[in-house]
Write a structure and sequence with these properties.
The protein is an alpha+beta fold and 290 residues long. It folds into 2 domains: 114 residues, D-amino Acid Aminotransferase, Chain A, domain 1 (2-Layer Sandwich), CATH 3.30.470; 157 residues, D-amino Acid Aminotransferase, Chain A, domain 2. The protein has 8 helices and 16 strands. Strand 7, helix 5 and strand 8 form a beta-alpha-beta unit. It binds 3-[O-phosphonopyridoxyl]--amino-benzoic acid (PXG).
């Protein structure tokens, strides 16, 4: 396996960063998780734009312009002969010393891993997930915007641990006020009487690209959409619930905090949105050849 690291393709065994890298010492950096389907990098522009926005928000100078980064991603995919891949782009503040001051980091570290990812086992897409709301609240917008896809995932990891302790697959985090927010690596949607509801980005969520694609599909099909402030009551009484994310795509949820959702099976709107989403992954992106 070849990894792109600071301008070079290196073997996995040689793909190492310093223990003084501030990405490791402080979680000082940003990343993206992208997927390619049959030589098409799904919504690449949206992912690249989000990465540069995350970097801008933390005053991190990207080591490459956008077009060069696209080139580096394609080069990595080619080197690994991958038609289908999960692409992880990571940019850290770089190597510095012991101390927060980012000015000590001369050069950002950039690496690209192309591999596979399976967030949930295949049978759960047919059966649906059992999830819980957890005590760990999502980071508040006012402290650290969840729109920044930063290397600080402790908030999400603590929530994930709580889900694991409850013996379920995923955790739904609430806002500090108790409104629905998002899961550890996915956004959440509700279907209520043929209307599609999802927490607004102002609730303090990552503006998911899969979420945006699903909203676009729904609008095109004249499904009423609302980005809103939602409660656990709304969730328990939804007809259908599903999660969206690059790794998970669209996955149905059939049980939340012990309450069965709808008829306890993946719903029709969820299934038809999934079908259309899969179609989009075949056409909507950046094409490359091996
Ligand atoms: N919320 C959070 C907190 C995320 O990390 C999403 C929502 C969904 O966003 P996209 O743009 O992917 O629709 C994410 C995405 C991983 C992994 O390695 C995590 C994500 C994506 C891909 C892989 O666990 N998070």
């Amino acid at each position: 396996m070849k990894i792109y690291l600071n301008g070079k393709l290196v073997d996995k065994a040689e793909a190492k960063v310093s223990v003084f890298d501030h990405g490791l010492l402080y979680g000082d950096g940003v990343f993206e998780g992208i997927r390619s389907y049959n030589c098409l990098i799904f919504r690449l522009k949206d992912h690249i734009d989000r990465l540069y926005r995350s970097a801008h928000a933390i005053l991190l100078d990207m080591p490459l312009p956008k077009e060069k980064l696209v080139g580096a991603i394609v080069k990595t995919l080619k080197a690994n002969k991958l038609k289908e891949a999960y692409i992880r782009v990571v940019v850290t503040r770089g190597e510095g010393d012991l101390g927060l001051d980012p000015r000590r980091c001369r050069q950002a570290t950039l690496f690209i891993i192309t591999d596979s990812i399976a967030l949930y086992p295949a049978e759960l897409y047919k059966k649906g997930l059992d999830i819980v709301t957890v005590p760990t609240r999502r980071n508040i917008n006012e402290a650290l915007s969840p729109q920044i896809k930063s290397l600080n995932y402790l908030n999400n990891i603590m929530a994930k641990i709580e889900a694991i302790n409850f013996k379920v697959e995923e955790a739904l985090m609430l806002t500090n006020e108790g409104y629905l927010c998002e899961c550890t690596g996915d956004n959440i949607f509700l279907v209520k009487e043929s209307m599609l509801l999802t927490p607004a980005t102002s609730m303090g969520i990552l503006a998911g690209i899969t979420r945006e694609v699903v909203l676009g599909i729904a609008r095109k099909r004249n499904i009423l959409v609302s980005e809103d402030m939602l409660t656990r009551y709304d969730l328990f009484n939804a007809n259908e619930v599903f999660l969206t994310g690059t790794a998970a795509e669209i996955i149905p949820v059939v049980k939340i905090d012990g309450r069965v959702i709808g008829n306890g099976k993946p719903g029709n709107i969820t299934l038809s949105l999934t079908e259309e989403f899969r179609r989009a992954t075949r056409i909507d992106g950046y094409r490359y050849s091996l």
